[in-house]
């Protein structure tokens, strides 16, 4: 019985530690339109009217995580439907990444040296402006993209509701950084278009100038249309 109690106490303390070190992500819709946020692997999805917020407690150790805006969605009572941009297999509660184009907040929590690593990515194109920034613990540097990318989008990348990425449009190793281009992937005129307007964001798969870090336990804001 004593052994069981010790194990139980250890489990509870461990659980409390992980809860206390969870990162709180506050997602806010500052757009003038309804936005359906997508979030994986934690959260799923949430409809946000203008001015509404959605808070997620994301446990430490979470990796390959994304939050992104979905636009012009229609879902039935069972949560099935579609979105013009950012659609995740027709589900309100996302279990997969969003379809291009979509502006993406990416993160991995409590990784090397007990730091979080995060970025804003335009590798999958752009649908709405975004601010992805820490809001606690003295960590201040994040990524913000407020340029008129949809209005200035190159003709070849224009699509309904956003500005597509060249990999989706052209499907070549050069733009997708596949095959022989994996190790020597270079920026293109299209990635330079995104980078020149939003220098804080990643613009192609080998971009090394857009990753940020904060101590584990930091909380974050993800703001659509900042």
From TrEMBL:
Short name of one Pfam family for this protein? Thaumatin
Any signal peptide, and if so, which residues? 1-22
State the InterPro entries in the record.
Osmotin/thaumatin-like_sf, Thaumatin, Thaumatin_CS
Q: Which UniProt keywords apply?
A: Disulfide bond, Signal
What SUPFAM superfamilies does the entry give? Osmotin, thaumatin-like protein (SSF49870)
Q: Does the keyword Signal apply?
A: yes
Disulfide pattern: 31-225, 73-83, 88-94, 145-198, 153-163, 167-176, 177-185
Coiled coil start-end: none
Q: Which family does it belong to?
A: Belongs to the thaumatin family.
PANTHER family named among the record's database cross-references = OS03G0233200 PROTEIN
Name it: Thaumatin-like protein 1
